[in-house]
Structures are given as C-alpha cells and as structure tokens.
Write a structure and sequence with these properties.
15 strands, 38% helix
C-alpha cells in the first residue's frame, strides 16, 4: 500500500503528524539564532606584545625577532608575518588547513613561556589572539555633544556604556575617538644630573609609593575586620611630594626633578561626522547570542537615551 493511500485511509493520524511537524517548525524558528556570519574558524593566530615608548627598529630587534625565533618550531605553520611599530609588536601565524587551533595555541603558549625570560621586564605580554569574524562589533554608535570631548568620553565610559552592558546578549564595548586624562611626569635632565639620579630612580620611587598592601585580619568580638594600608596616589600633589632619595638628611622629591601635571593623553584616533568631533563606540555580542535581537534592544536603548536627553 502506498503512502498516499495510507494517508487517505487514516486522515486523523496524517493530520496529527503534520501538526507535530508544524509545531516543531514554529518552535525551532522562534528560538533559531540569527547571526551575520556562520561559525568560521580561520587557521590564524596572532601574538602581540607592547613595550611603551620604544621605537619601531628597537621593537623589531628586542621583541619581534625574538618572538619569531621562539615560534619557528611550532608545527603546521605555513607563513609568518610580523609588524613592528612604536611600542607594539605583532607576529601573525598562518597554519595549514585542518590544523586544530586549540592544540596550536598550546604549542604557541609553550613556546612563549620559554621566551619570557629573554624579554625585558617592561614588556607587556606576549599574548595570543585568535581571529574570529564574529568578534567584530554588531552595532557602532556615534555620540556628539556641546560638551568637550574629555567630558563626553567620561559620560560614555561611566554611564552610557553601563546601560548597554545590561542588555541581554551584549558583550564588550570599545570606545574610539575619546579623550582621556593622564598624569604626566616630565623629567628635567639637568636636575637629574645634579641630583645624581636617573629616570629609573624616579619611576621606581613612584611605583614603590603607589601601592596598597594588605595588613591581615583583626578580630573584634564576632566581627572579622580586614586591615590594609592605603598608599595609592589620590592627587597630583601626592606624586610630586614622593621622596626619591634622601641626601645628607634632605629629601629629594619628584617635584624637585620633574614637572608633574594632570593633562590629556595623546589622541590615537580622531573621529568626525559632518565635520563635528565625535566619540564612537562599538558594541559586541556575547557568543551564541541572537544578533538581530541584541541589535533591536540596542536600538531601543538608544531611543530611550535620546528621549531622556530631549
């Protein structure tokens, strides 16, 4: 007996089977995640390292070449590309197709562990970054205001970004074009020489004094109190009054050999929209989150912020 004949003879069973299929389809469509790209694992790893205030040529000799030599023995590597810039080193490893990236990351991590002793102590890293096309921001928002860029940056980082982070499925937020404050210590060479000090002495003194150390626990009745010594700087004056060394009973402070001021960090990226300075921030989604749903909630939050502003 054919399938058509059985379906005609048993209409209720056929109807129930179709209803089950339709119900499962509706449920699956409702919870089906929507993404911009399918899951892609590109056989590429990038090793990065930062060394502040070091030129490109020195970065290549001190950091990049040593990383390349350490990674030369990693299996399944087809091509190695490196890029050295001021304070930054990037070494990209392209593996052959079919390479297990988790095993490759373990091999790269083991090679970098053997390398750490050969790098200067001031080098930040090295770290490993795996290429992932889904790691790009799903929404990029621009903010303009009559306030100055420094104040607008603080509002975005401290207030607005917190609201977007609370959206279900929203991940990290990257701010571009902002202006941040920093403390600048400009050393005077003639005073350092006359005081028989080096820039390293100044750096060590600031690092030594800018620390909060634990002091243990103190029991008082049924209470257990945590004790610590607060030594972190709270103002520019505290940095200037830091004692570097004492000579003949007279302290030599940071402000005696350097100018300490609160200023703004150098702008690494400047953004304009319609010839108006703008701060942009990109919002990434969490792994496995529905891109369309997250973008819809972000759009609603933007509308709420604009309505509160007006």
């Amino acid at each position: 007996m054919s399938l058509t004949s059985r379906s005609v003879q048993r209409p209720i069973t056929t109807l129930m089977a179709y209803l089950i299929v339709i119900t499962l389809g509706i449920i699956g469509f409702r919870f089906l995640p929507v993404d911009l790209l399918p899951p892609i694992e590109y056989p590429q790893l990038t090793v990065w390292a930062n060394y502040s205030n070091v030129g490109p040529e020195e970065m290549e000799v001190i950091v990049t070449e040593r990383i390349e030599n350490a990674l030369a023995g990693v299996p399944n590597v087809e091509r190695v590309n490196s890029n050295s810039s001021e304070g930054n080193s990037r070494v990209t490893l392209n593996f052959s197709r079919g390479t297990n990236l988790e095993e490759a990351m373990n091999d790269v991590r083991a090679a970098l562990d053997r390398l750490r002793r050969q790098l200067p102590d001031e080098v930040d890293g090295p770290g490993i970054w795996k290429f992932d096309p889904n790691d790009a921001p799903i929404v990029v928002i621009g903010a303009r205001s009559e306030r100055d860029l420094a104040e607008l940056t603080r509002i975005i980082e401290r207030d607005i970004s917190k609201r977007f982070e609370q959206i279900p499925g929203a991940g990290a937020i990257d701010v571009w074009g902002g202006v941040n404050q920093e403390v600048r210590v400009e050393m005077m060479r003639d005073r350092l020489i006359s005081s028989r000090l080096t820039p390293g002495d100044v750096v060590q003194a600031i690092q030594r004094e800018n620390a909060t150390t634990p002091g243990g626990n103190v029991r008082e009745g049924l209470s257990d109190l945590y004790v610590r010594s607060l030594g972190e700087f709270t103002s520019v004056e505290d940095i200037g009054n830091t004692i570097i060394r004492t000579v003949n009973g007279q302290p030599i402070r940071v402000q005696d050999v350097a100018n300490v001021s609160m200023t703004y960090a150098d702008i690494g990226r400047y953004v304009e929209i319609d010839n108006v300075p703008t701060v942009r921030f990109g919002i990434r989604k969490q792994t496995g989150a529905n891109t369309v749903a997250v973008a819809r909630e972000i759009h609603r939050e933007v509308e709420r912020i604009n309505s509160e502003r007006s």
